[in-house]
Write a structure and sequence with these properties.
By secondary structure, the protein is of the alpha/beta class. The protein has 12 helices and 8 strands. The protein has an 8-stranded mixed sheet, sandwiched between helices.
């Protein structure tokens, strides 16, 4: 067996990042997510497809809070930077809304149309738009928790030092892009060595906002390792970073802990605002 990465050949590496294959009931879980997301759009006040750029996917949805100055939770969806859309994950807004947040669902251009460099820049452009309150939503000064799941967790970690961000909650994030570059997931992404170095949070630990790095405790070992190693590296660098492995949760149903008002990820976001995250 050729040692491509951490003792794995390419076939083993691909399996180590195949979240869908690791969860037997994945089709049922995704169908539930989509149905619950439709319910969220039907039942919560929102503004849809606000533009932060000229691209077709440079859009975001806004779900207002009870008060105009409510803290903001920005959620960036996953899909290995090459699939899914914000509409698939609208179900997550219920928990933060119940906890007193207003919620932004972020969209971005997918690979292969967009490179990693462009995707990262698009999320930066969205945060710039929110910072100047370009759409007159009244959220320019509110505390902002930047969150995201999987690829979105990676993008949240990349931008934890953005001036508009006050706290970060990456969930199941890919914190080192090298194993992505070495596997078949890279076919649409075509990551360069420079992109791996520049956009891997594990390799670019510097001053940033307080953060909870979360992952499902029942996720693939590589996914757990990314979050665990990143949190520990941030702590070693003197950064305020709590590691949270949610017991029993896989890569998909871990988001139920954000969608539920009493979920572990909602509690983590509240701890961040209270300055109580470890």
């Amino acid at each position: 067996m050729a040692d491509l990465y951490r003792g794995m050949d390419r076939e083993t590496l691909d399996l180590a990042y195949n979240n869908s294959r690791a969860v037997p009931q994945v089709e049922t879980l995704i169908a539930s997510m989509l149905s619950r997301s439709e319910h969220a759009y039907a039942n919560f006040t929102h503004e849809r497809d606000l533009a932060y750029g000229d691209g077709a996917r440079q859009r975001y949805d806004w779900f207002p809070g009870v008060t105009p100055d409510a803290p903001v939770l920005v959620f960036i969806h996953g899909g290995y930077w090459q699939s899914r859309c914000k509409e698939d994950f609208a179900f997550v807004v219920e928990g933060p809304l119940a906890a007193g947040f207003q919620v932004v669902l972020a969209e971005y251009t997918l690979a292969p149309e967009a490179s990693m460099t462009r995707i990262v820049a698009e999320i930066g452009a969205l945060l710039d738009q929110l910072a100047r309150d370009g759409d007159g939503l009244g959220i320019g000064e509110a505390p902002l928790v930047l969150s995201g799941h999987s690829a979105g967790g990676h993008l949240a970690a990349v931008h934890r030092s953005h001036p508009r961000v006050t706290h970060a909650l990456p969930i199941s994030g890919l914190m080192d892009l090298e194993p992505i570059r070495l596997g078949t997931l890279n076919d649409p992404l075509d990551l360069s060595a420079g992109e791996v170095e520049h956009f891997s949070p594990q390799r670019r630990i510097g001053p940033g906002v307080p953060m909870v790095v979360a992952v499902g405790g029942a996720e693939l070992a590589e996914l757990v390792r990314h979050s665990h190693d990143y949190a520990l590296a941030c702590q070693a660098a003197g950064e305020a970073a709590e590691y949270l492995a949610v017991p029993g949760r896989n890569h998909f149903d871990v988001l139920d802990e954000l969608a539920a008002p009493d979920g572990a990820l909602v509690a983590a976001a509240r701890r961040l605002l209270a300055g109580a995250a470890r």
